[in-house]
Design a protein that fits this description.
The protein has three helices and five strands, in the order H-H-E-E-E-H-E-E. By secondary structure, it is an alpha+beta fold. A five-stranded mixed beta sheet has the order 1-2-3-5-4. A hairpin with a 4-residue loop joins strand 4 and strand 5. The radius of gyration is 14 Å and the shape is globular.
């Protein structure tokens, strides 16, 4: 997981939020991930750290994030993934993201 991976995740998650039916989620965007720790799991790893989450150009907050990343993406240079779970809580300032490697065709849903 290099800088390219985190930049793609930032861009993809911002797009995912903008496309949600729930109007409250569409106002959020991600301005960066700062990984601070990693923990092995049965699934792969959980990366914890800070994410900068904004609602406008002048309103950004540091959120605590956990990104669950499957083992298959850890060694892959192909960072094609999809979100299987996203939980953004503006009250507690926490962001949880579970991603999975996408092996399906573009017809099955958006790829990031």
């Amino acid at each position: 997981m290099d800088h390219d991976f985190w930049s793609r995740l930032e861009f993809a998650l911002t797009g995912w939020l903008a496309g949600q039916d729930e109007k409250n989620l569409r106002r959020f965007w991600i301005d960066g991930f700062i990984p601070e720790g990693i923990r092995d799991t049965e699934y792969g790893v959980n990366v914890e750290g800070r994410a900068w989450v904004g609602t406008s150009a002048r309103d950004q907050s540091a959120y605590q994030f956990v990104a669950s990343i499957p083992q298959s993406l850890l060694t892959s240079k192909n960072h094609t993934f999809r979100f299987s779970k996203v939980n953004l809580d503006p009250v507690t300032k926490k962001l949880e993201v579970t991603i999975e490697k996408d092996t399906k065709t573009a017809e099955s849903g958006p790829l990031v």
